[in-house]
Design goal:
- With 148 residues, this protein is mainly beta.
- It has a single domain, classed as Deoxyuridine 5'-Triphosphate Nucleotidohydrolase, Chain A, CATH 2.70.40.10.
- It has one helix and eleven strands.
- A four-stranded antiparallel β-sheet has the order 2-11-6-8. Strands 4-9-7 form a three-stranded antiparallel β-sheet.
- The longest helix has 6 residues.
- The model has no long low-confidence stretch (mean pLDDT 92).
């Protein structure tokens, strides 16, 4: 039985997408790559497709952090600082649970992220809920589906 991991989303099955992996035995995070060449304009932001989705137990979350060299080498940051991928985001009806990274270019030049370039790392972790938490609401979509 599968517990946690990554899969390629359907629309990228023929695009030779690499699943995230840890590069050393001491690495905490799984390196996540860009699925297609993506241009991020200077002082602009862009959704960067990864072509992957993640599955995990209901009591876990996947936290997405930018690779440490991204900001000083390419002037890129994750617009939301840390991406949070909830367990019920997997296979949602809007986008099948594809992990999209919102990258902001704070530099003075456009930046091209190449397909296969490692841009982020994902860490699975447990989370706790409070006493009396009885939320049974089901996810109804993808990004921003729980409102504002």
């Amino acid at each position: 039985m599968k517990t946690r991991g990554f899969e390629v989303v359907t629309k990228y099955l023929d695009n030779q997408i690499s699943l995230p992996e840890r590069k050393t035995k001491g690495s905490a995070g799984y390196d996540i790559s860009c699925a297609v060449d993506t241009l991020i304009k200077a002082n602009g932001y862009q959704f960067v497709p990864t072509g992957i989705k993640a599955y995990m137990p209901r009591t876990e979350v996947l936290k997405i952090y930018p690779r440490s060299s991204l900001s000083f080498k390419k002037h890129l940051v994750l617009l939301n600082s840390v991406g949070i991928i909830d367990s019920d985001y997997y296979n949602n009806p809007d986008n099948e649970g594809e992990i999209l990274l919102i990258m902001y270019n704070f530099g003075k030049e456009d930046v091209l992220i190449k397909k296969g370039e490692r841009i982020a790392q994902g860490l699975f972790s447990k989370y706790l809920s409070i006493d009396g938490d009885s939320n049974n609401t089901k996810r109804s979509g993808g990004l921003g589906s729980t409102g504002h």
